[in-house]
Each structure stands twice: as structure tokens, then as C-alpha cells.
Amino acid sequence: MTVTGMATMLSSCLNPFAPRLALSSDGTLLGDQRTIEGVFQNFRYAYIFKDTLTYGQLLDPNFVFIYRNYERNVDASWGRDEEMFSTNGLFRTAQALDLVWNEIIFASGDSLSTNIQRGFNLTVTFNVNDIIRLDGRVNLGLVREKPSDVWRIRRWRDESNF
Fold it and tell me: Within 10 A of 7 (CB to CB), how many other CB atoms are there?
């Protein structure tokens, strides 16, 4: 049995009520990042399996994360290095993560640059007594050099109200 097959079997055995990850046509859990849906599938995979390598491959070298600092009433941002550090910390401290992508609210762009707004539900389990459920929205700017390249996230604006 392959590692991918074992991971699929174990994930379904551990929680039979959890939503399943869709297998791609070649039998892997990863999507084709040359498609928009493949980006979202890989994003979900990275969170569920706490895979920083896969997550890092989603981010453009010029990545920027933008969020609202409600205490100071200003937008704040950080770059790719800070994003990887922050996400690695989340992956290390969470016992389990479950990310569900909801409907695409808005999509606009062309074959090299596109903007996607999409809803999500994120469940972060630190332990059985500390579970956080977040519902929010992302606004992602995706780019690639040519249509045969993979999409990468250049800009992520968090449009959630936490």
C-alpha cells in the first residue's frame, strides 16, 4: 500500500464523519495547481495534514497577507516569511485542523492573474477542551507567468470579522 493510500485509509478510519478529501485523477490527495480548484484543494490538504512544504508551494515569492487590526482600526500586513512562520506555529500547536471551502463569492481575471473571494469554515482543535470554529472569507490574488504554470497566491486579504 502506498503512503497516500495509507493516509487516506487512516484519515477515514480515524473519523468516519469527517469530510473526505477528493482524490485527483492520479490517485493522490493533491490537486493540479494549474487550476484554481487545485489551488484550493492543495490549500485544504496543507491544513488538514499540517504540511508546510505543500503550503509553501502555494505562496508566491512576493506574497503578502493583509488583515484588519481592529484594535488600531487599520489594515496590517506581512510577507511570505512571516506567513510561513505563523502557519508553521499553527500547524505545530494544533492537534487537528479542518478546512472546508464554501462557495466562490466573486471571481475575476484572466489566464495569468485572477482574484477569488471565497467563504470558508476552519476548525482548529488544540485539545478536546479547546476547539475554535471560524467562519470567514478570503480574497485571494493568484498569479502565474504563463498558462501552463501553476497558480501561486500573491495576495491574501482576510475579509473575516473575528
Answer: 16
- Tally DSSP H helices, then E strands, for the chain: 4, 6
The single residue listed with the C-alpha cell 491544513 is 47
Bridge partners for 104 per DSSP: 118
CATH number at residue 86: 3.10.450.50
E-strand ranges in the chain read 59-69, 74-79, 96-109, 113-127, 130-143, 152-158
User: Per the structure, how many domains does the chain have?
Assistant: 1
Question: In angstroms, rounded to a whole number, what is the distance separating the alpha carbons of residues 8 and 14?
Answer: 10
- Residue from 107, 136, 108, 109 nearest 120 by CA: 136
What Rg, from alpha-carbon coordinates, does the chain have? 16
For residue range 69-122, list pLDDT tens digits in order: 989 999 999 999 999 999 999 999 999 999 999 999 999 999 999 999 999 999
In SS3 terms, 129-153 reads as CEEEEEEEEEEEEEECCCCCCCCEE
Give me the domain span that covers residue 14: 3-158
Q: Closest Cα partner for 135 from 105, 106, 159?
A: 159
CA distance 147 to 11: 34
